[in-house]
Amino acid sequence: MTDKLDGYREETSARRLLFSLPAFRNAVHGPTTSGMFIGQVAALLMTALALALRFYLDPMLPPGFPYLTFFPTVVITGFVWGIYPAITAGILSGLASWYWFIQPSGSFSLDGPAATALAFYVFVITTDIALLFLALRALGAQVRSHEALAAALQMQQLVSKEVDHRLKNLMATINSLISMLQKHASTPRELADQLRQRINALSHSIGLLRGAAEGERISLRKAVLSALEPLGLSDSDRVTLDGPEVMISSNGFVPLNLILHELGTNSLKHGAFSNQSGRLRLSWTVAVREVDKSILSFVWVERGGPIAPPPTRTGFGTELLNRMSLLLGGGCEFLFDADGLTAKISMESQHVLDGY
Asked: pTM for this one?
């Protein structure tokens, strides 16, 4: 058991050391402009060092070793700083060895022996860089797959935890609905009819969720309404929806439904829909923030309800919204004031929308 733990610690330490190198970070997350610049500077310095060392060793070597210090320089540069710096170091090293260490030295003449020596150099360096490129690319794909699997497992655990929490919320929602309907139902029959409508709406939402999982194209507006309807929050006189007509993906319906259900349940128990005068405005936008990346942003605004004081502790609902939005590549922000709750939630469009 101790040997296994020691082996795991050594593997973790080696992994941490490797990913401290720019080449390995770039293989996973892609290069940055500053990183590319630093890599090119490093390639120049490494080539200069290799050239100085080759001059130093020249009196000690017999003829025929023009690339002695340049081969390891290119490999080390690629291993530490990445493929592009390795290519730069390879080109500069080849030119330096051609000019100073391939006869006749001090020129770029290209006779038969010089051409053979350069062809050998190009073959070896190209092979080294190609193998390093394939290794870094495979590593990057493996790490990204591992991160995606970890995120999927985290999402699965979160959804499993949400099942228990949602059952409690469901019971609380039904109790709130009964209390609210009792104020307006004049007869037990009317109360039963209205309650039956809410339960049917809940069943409709579950059916819509199943359709989304099977690939049915559903508009975001319809998904929002289906999430709010079982909670009795789809009243057109009290709810305003504003946003572009976009389609939600089958993968996006579940997290969006969980987010809206959590906000809606809170509104029903503590917010604008805990009385008869509160109102809700829900708007969404899709905006491009980076190249090939767009963000879906929701703004949930409650007005006319009780004062929304800041919570004294972070409950499961707040944790759920934070973690869900982070897993979807976004974030959330809550504003509590006398006018009511304002929640701003963002997520990457590719995770929730169809065609992004």
From this structure: 0.48
